Amino acid sequence: MVMNTSWKIPDTVNEEARKYFEPSLLTSSHKLLQLSRVSISFSKGSPETYFIVSGIVREDKRHETKVVYKRRLEDTPEGPVSSNCDCHKWSADGHCPHAAAIFLTYHIHLMHEKNFDATTDNMSHPPIPLESTFAVSAYEYGTIVNGPHQLERAPSNAAYSSLQYLLHNKKIMNFPIPEQWQGKLIIQITSVDHFREATEESEALPLLRFKYENEQGKIVREISLFENLYLFNWNSGTCYHLPAELKDLVQKLRIQLTHLDVNDLIKVTQGVTSHYLSVIIDEIPLEDIPTYDSTARIHLTKAKKGSNIDINLLFIDNEENLIHSPDFLKAFTFNGGKLSSFRTKKDAYEFVQKLAESFEDDNEAYKTALHPSNQKNYWNNLIDYTLKQDDTLIYSGKSKSLCRYPNAFLRDFFMTLHKCFGDLFFRFSKYDLESRELTYSLPGSTLFQGLSEFHTRTSLHGVQIYYNRNEISRWSSKIRFERKSTATNWFDLELKINSEDMDLVNNVDLDNGLALTKDGLVLLNKEQKDLLKFVKKYTKYEAQNKYQTKENSDDGTSEEEMNRFVLPFNRARIFELFELKKLGIDGALTEDEIKLCESLATLEKMPEYDIPKGLEDVLRPYQRNGYNWLRFLYENKLGACLADDMGLGKTLQTISFISSILDQVDKILIVCPVTILLNWEAEFKKFSDIEVQIYHGGDRQFDPNAKITLTSYGVMKREIDETFADQHFDIFILDEVQHLKNIRSQGAFAARKVKADFRICLTGTPVENDLAEFYNILDLSIPGIWGDLQFIRTSSNKKSRLLAR
Fold this sequence. Notes:
Blueprint (H helix, E strand, L loop, with lengths): L10 H8 L4 H12 L3 E9 L3 E9 L3 E9 L10 E5 L11 H17 L29 E3 L18 E3 L5 E3 L9 E7 L1 H8 L7 E7 L5 E2 L2 E4 L3 E4 L5 E3 L2 H13 L5 H8 L7 E5 L2 E2 L5 E3 L1 E8 L5 E9 L5 E2 L3 H4 L14 H17 L14 H13 L2 E6 L4 E6 H15 L7 E4 L4 E7 H16 L4 E4 L2 E2 L1 E2 L5 E5 L6 E8 H9 E2 L4 E4 L2 E4 L2 H17 L2 E8 L6 E11 L4 H9 L8 H11 L19 H15 L4 E3 L7 H12 L6 E5 L4 H11 L5 E2 L13 E5 H12 L3 E8 L10 H8 L1 E8 L8 H11 L7 H7 L2 H7 L1
Parallel strand pairs: 5-11, 8-14, 16-21, 17-24, 26-31, 34-39, 35-37, 35-38, 36-37, 38-39
Antiparallel strand pairs: 1-2, 2-3, 3-4, 6-7, 8-9, 9-10, 11-12, 12-13, 14-15, 17-18, 18-19, 18-23, 20-21, 22-23, 24-25, 27-28, 28-33, 29-30, 30-31, 32-33
Helix pairs in contact: 2-3, 5-6, 8-10, 10-11, 16-17, 17-18, 19-20
């Protein structure tokens, strides 16, 4: 006996049962009636004197139960009702739920005999025949009969065609010849929420009933589905073959009937032709139920124990009601889901990985990873449904509405979880039926490492993420740069940062792309991380002047504190500013400078320049490349480091370069070890007719009008202030510059004090021991290319030195 949502056991029957059975027994017996687990096989007598009734109750197994009532024992200590049952709950001193269920069923049948309608929607029940009648009837209309033996009074070995049928009008007939399907099958279900609201029952199961609508539109309640074969009309005695679509549907319902809920019904009926089927939920046709898009929310909280972060995933409808998570995501939990169906957790992780790859590659390779699961059919049906249907629909009994989950989103969300956090994301996973939350737990380091990408991907689907109850946000930068010309540098940049952005700069974790500020957790995209790498370097190491001012806010309604940092820049760092421009920082470069950067960024071949007379047949191909390289850098006012091995002609390439631009310059200074001063002089005489002055020796005199001056590192170091500091050179050349590899040496300090428009460093060993050597040589070639020395010192480690080599 299964109750309809608006039908309940008549009060008179309940009152009679309460006289003899404990409330807890009656509660359990109600569930047995709801699940059609009770059938009476024999009854005799009447309640006026005595009766005896026996039957079968199917719970964990089939239990044979008997109840005896003797009116004459009403006032005796033992009472008028006795029972017997083969279950372990029954004892000689008390009854069991099965006895209570038989007692209730017997009295309900008595009321049916008197044509009592126990429902408010006129749902009729089968008639009770005389004891001598062998015609069968249904225990309850509107249900599935899982075989002829389940019809009341049918023998265990019966066939449908061999039975006689007691119709609703008490006529008896043989089994009719089944007809072709006509009309429509109606499935009516009531949600748990609606049932509780209507009956005030604290515990209930979803209640399912079938009806039939004939071609004239008349609704017939007195029907049975004979397995997935026929629909039998107990009013007219007509029998119909079920069409193929309904056969498949009814078979799925038979398999899931004991644990079927509203959302299961929606799932299995999706795709069935509406010509054959109509679904009614809480008395509302499915097609008339308002449908809304669901919203996913994720709450991140610190776990009560350890350093893990709990990730709570929940779904809400349009009225902020919590709704059940879709089965697809629930399945991927160990506690409450189906990942526990695998032999080991390792098997489950391999399946998760295989499925993510199969979704990515659009194949079915995941099926091989399902062998260790004892729920292979469930997984295959679930995945197949998620792939073939556009949406998963979830019904809310409280709001009487449907929430739509696009299956493409569910698949993408699953793949995003796996991509950002790995298959171990599911290690500590559970689904709580009461709170309707999916919960995962991850180490904080693992979570934050993938959180930025996860947020980026899920925000496309409208997923909201909260950390400690504050919604995670993206950074909207208000950082500004202003360019100011100076006499000593190319120009100064003034970096302006308000207090909110300064809070973020001070608390940013660039490795994970996030910052925990006073307003909550802020996530950064790749461009913002790159921008903040520059900003942190500028504010911590390079700013030569720092101060604070107050400025009007953007909307002009208030003043805000502004942090200002003055940064000296020279032309060597033009590419750095070009990178800032690509990150959204405008105003630091002119249009010509931008064009130069774009030209250099897309350079595919070095420009070729005319070789000075007399050297066309002297320069080898690689020396021509070096010559073109020097000319190219000179024309773009950048600086050069020529690092050929010893003996490959660095001097010749440099002399060729000087010869080609000699008429464009006034003064060139060449510094080298004292041992090769004469070699330089000889090379000039051999490959050009350029005169040079050697400024060395005890009687040396500096000629400020000499076009090319040769001197040693020792002389430069000793006379930097009295001879060289006041001179301005067009080109400054440092040969064997590795002699200045120690950035703290007096020679390196002196070389930096020489004023020059273009610098060339020549060396055969640009890196020997430390990253700082490489820094020093390139900084001598292109002063300021690295920014502040303190930054490079903090960046120098074993890994960076290895990469530099």
